[in-house]
């Protein structure tokens, strides 16, 4: 496994997300009450960017078809999406958010 540094904690405001492209990865980094979570950024139902969708609690709504996913687990909360999004074990080292892939 390789460590992939994604961003600084200060780049992601609490209750929001940013899109990060690195290598072959396109991910969304979420800050939920100071805890960081990383998912694939592209919705499993269409071309929507999850980092641009509204966040309510621990869910994000796709801005394309309005499907809702649990940010922590990737599970579908509301259709039309049927396939969960990929989540990544996320850690913080100092002020750097990273994943291992």
Keywords:
single chain; 101 residues; mainly beta; Rieske Iron-sulfur Protein; four-stranded antiparallel beta sheet; 11 strands; 0% helix; globular
Task: Please explain how this structure is put together.
- This protein is mostly beta strands.
- It has a single domain (3-100), classed as Rieske [2Fe-2S] iron-sulphur domain (Rieske Iron-sulfur Protein, 3-layer Sandwich), CATH 2.102.10.10.
- 0% of the residues lie in helices and 49% in strands.
- It has no helices and eleven strands.
- The chain has strands at 3-8, 16-22, 25-32, 35-40, 55-56, 59-61, 68-70, 76-78, 87-88, 90-93, 96-100.
- The strands form three sheets. It has a four-stranded antiparallel sheet with strand order 2-3-4-9, with no helix packed on it.
- The mean pLDDT is 95.
Tally of DSSP helical segments: 0
**If classified by CATH, what would the architecture be?**
3-layer Sandwich
Major sheet? 4 strands, antiparallel
Number of E-state strands: 11
Secondary-structure blueprint of this entry?
Blueprint: E1 3-8, E2 16-22, E3 25-32, E4 35-40, E5 55-56, E6 59-61, E7 68-70, E8 76-78, E9 87-88, E10 90-93, E11 96-100
Antiparallel strand pairs: 1-11, 2-3, 3-4, 4-9, 5-6, 6-7, 7-8, 10-11
